[in-house]
What does this fold into?
Amino acid sequence: MEKIRLGRTNLMVSRTSFGALPIQRISFEAAKYLLRKAYNNGINYFDTARMYSDSEEKIGYALSDVRENIIISTKSHAKSGEELLEHLETSLKNLKTDYVDILQLHNPPFLPVEGHESGLYEAALKAKRMGKARYIGITNHQLKLTKDAVTSGLYDTVQFPLCSISSQKDLELIPLCKDHDIGLIAMKGLSGGLITNASSTFTFLRQYENLVPIWGIQREWELDEFISLEANPPKLDTEMLEIIEKDRRELAGSFCRSCGYCMPCPVGIPIPTAARISYLLDRSSYEPFMTDEWRKKMDLVNDCIECGQCKSRCPYGLDTPNLLKKMLESYNNFYTNYHKKKS
It folds into this structure.
């Protein structure tokens, strides 16, 4: 497994790394099997968060006996310095370790700096002084805030959504991090599952030598695919570029990346799926969405109370309520035609 240097941290991380958000959806034993298989195949970097329910506990359960051989980053969505340190203590207990390699501030709406009233950055520094965090990072979906974090000199790593359909503006973050020797961690490499050809975005991101993608993995076949791609990295040739261009055309404009920051919905709408249902019907197996159960879930869009919570939380600035209405109309047309053909 090839490794790269993660900026000024000097941590040598596997170029194929493990995003542990999805393992919160599977059992402890299933997660342990996946995590151990990843480790046994050379993956040494695992990224999780306090917000990912039992993801940290599963990493501790599966990998605590090889802690000295792996690199762990976790995140805290704390609003204050005191809460950050409380989150960190919980994370250390869950992960069965005395320290995390990278403590990341999880998608704050502002850039925490020394002297800010939140006290977040001072608390991160305190954690570092106590030996409970080796490096300080930040994750975000806002490009300007992420760039400001890079140029501030305060953060060792930044984590940002990057994939084969990223805009040229977003891609400017890559050389900026290189110039400042900041470790760059790429999340959402498959754009929330809308990029269905993993090899295309894998190959696209691999051209950048200062970037490590963390692939969200929930199933063994997903892990096997990335292990295989790592063993024989495809070339970014004409055929691959044509696949990427096709994705860019089909996914042009604003669309839901399924980050989940809009949740929970007060009326129970499954927003991350409902807000991109037309793409899922077009780009993946649609049969699971043709059930009575899913029809009832989509019908919840009609119960929207226009509270605006989802719209205000969206890091991409989507008009989520209107997007949901459009997606419901598209879904209903597809559902009706599907069942007409079946009858």
